[in-house]
Write a structure and sequence with these properties.
The protein is an alpha/beta fold and about 170 residues long. It is built from six helices and five strands, in the order H-E-H-E-H-H-H-E-E-E-H. The protein has a five-stranded mixed beta sheet with strand order 2-1-3-4-5, with helices on both faces.
Protein backbone atom coordinates (compact mmCIF):
# COMPACT_ATOMS: atom_id res chain seq x y z
CA UNK A 1 0.00 0.00 0.00
CA UNK A 2 1.40 3.39 -0.91
CA UNK A 3 2.07 6.03 1.73
CA UNK A 4 -0.89 8.25 0.72
CA UNK A 5 -3.39 5.44 1.26
CA UNK A 6 -1.64 4.29 4.44
CA UNK A 7 -1.84 7.83 5.84
CA UNK A 8 -5.52 8.03 4.92
CA UNK A 9 -6.10 4.73 6.72
CA UNK A 10 -4.51 6.06 9.91
CA UNK A 11 -6.44 9.32 9.76
CA UNK A 12 -9.76 7.53 9.24
CA UNK A 13 -9.03 5.11 12.06
CA UNK A 14 -8.21 7.99 14.41
CA UNK A 15 -11.40 9.88 13.51
CA UNK A 16 -13.64 6.82 13.86
CA UNK A 17 -12.01 5.69 17.10
CA UNK A 18 -12.22 9.16 18.69
CA UNK A 19 -15.95 9.34 17.96
CA UNK A 20 -16.59 5.66 18.74
CA UNK A 21 -17.95 5.06 15.26
CA UNK A 22 -17.94 1.65 13.61
CA UNK A 23 -17.80 1.49 9.80
CA UNK A 24 -19.33 -0.83 7.22
CA UNK A 25 -18.57 -0.53 3.53
CA UNK A 26 -20.55 -1.54 0.45
CA UNK A 27 -18.49 -1.66 -2.72
CA UNK A 28 -19.07 -2.59 -6.30
CA UNK A 29 -16.55 -1.26 -8.84
CA UNK A 30 -13.78 -0.96 -6.24
CA UNK A 31 -14.06 -4.62 -5.24
CA UNK A 32 -13.23 -4.12 -1.56
CA UNK A 33 -10.33 -1.71 -2.07
CA UNK A 34 -11.80 0.87 0.35
CA UNK A 35 -12.14 -1.81 3.03
CA UNK A 36 -8.57 -2.91 2.33
CA UNK A 37 -7.32 0.63 2.92
CA UNK A 38 -9.28 1.04 6.15
CA UNK A 39 -8.09 -2.30 7.51
CA UNK A 40 -4.46 -1.62 6.59
CA UNK A 41 -4.01 0.03 9.99
CA UNK A 42 -3.43 -2.33 12.90
CA UNK A 43 -6.31 -2.39 15.36
CA UNK A 44 -8.90 -1.60 12.68
CA UNK A 45 -11.31 -4.14 14.18
CA UNK A 46 -12.03 -1.39 16.73
CA UNK A 47 -13.64 0.76 14.01
CA UNK A 48 -14.42 -1.53 11.07
CA UNK A 49 -17.26 -4.07 11.28
CA UNK A 50 -17.56 -5.50 7.78
CA UNK A 51 -17.44 -4.88 4.06
CA UNK A 52 -19.86 -6.00 1.40
CA UNK A 53 -18.55 -6.56 -2.12
CA UNK A 54 -21.69 -6.52 -4.23
CA UNK A 55 -20.48 -6.60 -7.80
CA UNK A 56 -23.71 -7.89 -9.34
CA UNK A 57 -27.25 -6.58 -9.06
CA UNK A 58 -28.28 -9.89 -7.46
CA UNK A 59 -25.65 -9.38 -4.75
CA UNK A 60 -26.85 -5.82 -4.12
CA UNK A 61 -30.39 -7.15 -3.62
CA UNK A 62 -29.45 -10.21 -1.53
CA UNK A 63 -26.75 -8.71 0.69
CA UNK A 64 -27.82 -5.08 1.03
CA UNK A 65 -31.55 -5.13 0.38
CA UNK A 66 -31.36 -2.85 -2.65
CA UNK A 67 -34.81 -3.01 -4.22
CA UNK A 68 -34.98 -4.52 -7.72
CA UNK A 69 -37.25 -1.59 -8.63
CA UNK A 70 -34.44 0.85 -7.76
CA UNK A 71 -32.03 -1.02 -10.00
CA UNK A 72 -34.59 -1.25 -12.83
CA UNK A 73 -35.49 2.44 -12.65
CA UNK A 74 -32.05 3.97 -12.04
CA UNK A 75 -29.45 1.30 -12.79
CA UNK A 76 -26.66 -0.10 -10.64
CA UNK A 77 -24.60 3.05 -11.19
CA UNK A 78 -26.85 5.72 -9.76
CA UNK A 79 -27.17 7.89 -6.72
CA UNK A 80 -30.36 6.01 -5.81
CA UNK A 81 -28.47 2.71 -5.77
CA UNK A 82 -25.53 4.20 -3.84
CA UNK A 83 -28.00 5.52 -1.27
CA UNK A 84 -29.67 2.11 -0.94
CA UNK A 85 -26.28 0.41 -0.66
CA UNK A 86 -25.16 2.75 2.14
CA UNK A 87 -28.43 2.23 4.02
CA UNK A 88 -28.26 -1.53 3.43
CA UNK A 89 -24.73 -1.75 4.81
CA UNK A 90 -25.98 -0.24 8.07
CA UNK A 91 -29.11 -2.40 8.16
CA UNK A 92 -27.02 -5.55 7.76
CA UNK A 93 -24.21 -4.75 10.19
CA UNK A 94 -23.36 -3.45 13.62
CA UNK A 95 -21.94 -0.26 12.11
CA UNK A 96 -22.92 3.31 12.91
CA UNK A 97 -21.57 4.83 9.69
CA UNK A 98 -21.27 3.45 6.18
CA UNK A 99 -19.90 4.22 2.76
CA UNK A 100 -20.98 2.89 -0.62
CA UNK A 101 -19.31 2.95 -4.03
CA UNK A 102 -20.84 1.89 -7.35
CA UNK A 103 -19.52 2.83 -10.74
CA UNK A 104 -18.17 2.06 -14.18
CA UNK A 105 -14.40 1.59 -14.04
CA UNK A 106 -14.09 0.40 -17.65
CA UNK A 107 -12.65 -0.14 -20.04
CA UNK A 108 -16.15 -1.05 -21.28
CA UNK A 109 -19.62 -0.73 -19.84
CA UNK A 110 -20.12 2.98 -20.33
CA UNK A 111 -22.92 4.70 -22.23
CA UNK A 112 -23.52 8.28 -23.38
CA UNK A 113 -25.49 9.00 -20.18
CA UNK A 114 -23.06 7.14 -17.94
CA UNK A 115 -19.59 7.10 -19.45
CA UNK A 116 -16.68 5.05 -18.15
CA UNK A 117 -15.45 6.82 -15.02
CA UNK A 118 -18.93 7.55 -13.65
CA UNK A 119 -18.96 6.64 -9.95
CA UNK A 120 -21.72 7.17 -7.40
CA UNK A 121 -21.08 7.38 -3.67
CA UNK A 122 -23.21 7.10 -0.56
CA UNK A 123 -22.42 7.81 3.09
CA UNK A 124 -24.87 7.16 5.88
CA UNK A 125 -24.95 7.65 9.62
CA UNK A 126 -27.34 5.32 11.47
CA UNK A 127 -30.67 7.07 11.99
CA UNK A 128 -30.09 9.62 9.20
CA UNK A 129 -30.76 9.72 5.48
CA UNK A 130 -27.84 8.80 3.24
CA UNK A 131 -25.85 11.53 1.53
CA UNK A 132 -24.99 10.81 -2.11
CA UNK A 133 -22.75 12.18 -4.79
CA UNK A 134 -21.79 11.38 -8.37
CA UNK A 135 -18.37 12.00 -9.92
CA UNK A 136 -16.75 11.45 -13.28
CA UNK A 137 -13.13 10.29 -13.07
CA UNK A 138 -10.64 10.11 -15.91
CA UNK A 139 -8.01 7.51 -16.73
CA UNK A 140 -7.63 3.79 -17.09
CA UNK A 141 -9.50 1.25 -14.94
CA UNK A 142 -7.08 1.23 -11.99
CA UNK A 143 -6.80 5.02 -11.97
CA UNK A 144 -10.60 5.35 -11.86
CA UNK A 145 -10.88 2.78 -9.08
CA UNK A 146 -8.13 4.46 -7.05
CA UNK A 147 -9.73 7.89 -7.42
CA UNK A 148 -13.06 6.40 -6.34
CA UNK A 149 -11.53 4.84 -3.22
CA UNK A 150 -9.79 8.05 -2.24
CA UNK A 151 -12.92 10.12 -2.83
CA UNK A 152 -15.11 7.73 -0.82
CA UNK A 153 -12.65 7.63 2.08
CA UNK A 154 -12.12 11.39 2.10
CA UNK A 155 -15.91 11.81 2.14
CA UNK A 156 -16.09 9.41 5.05
CA UNK A 157 -13.35 11.30 6.88
CA UNK A 158 -15.14 14.65 6.51
CA UNK A 159 -18.37 13.16 7.80
CA UNK A 160 -16.70 11.27 10.65
CA UNK A 161 -14.97 14.42 11.86
CA UNK A 162 -18.26 16.32 12.06
CA UNK A 163 -20.20 13.67 13.98
CA UNK A 164 -20.37 14.06 17.75
CA UNK A 165 -18.86 11.18 19.71
CA UNK A 166 -21.15 8.26 20.38
CA UNK A 167 -21.63 7.74 24.11
Amino acid sequence: MDSDLASLSIEIGDALRQRRLILASAESCTGGWAAQVVTHTAGSSAWFDRGFITYTNDAKVAMLGVRPETLAAHGAVSQATASAMAAGALANSNALISLAITGIAGPSGGSPGKPVGTVCFGWCLRGQAPEVEQRLFQGEREAIRRQAVIHALNGLLVRAKTVPSVP
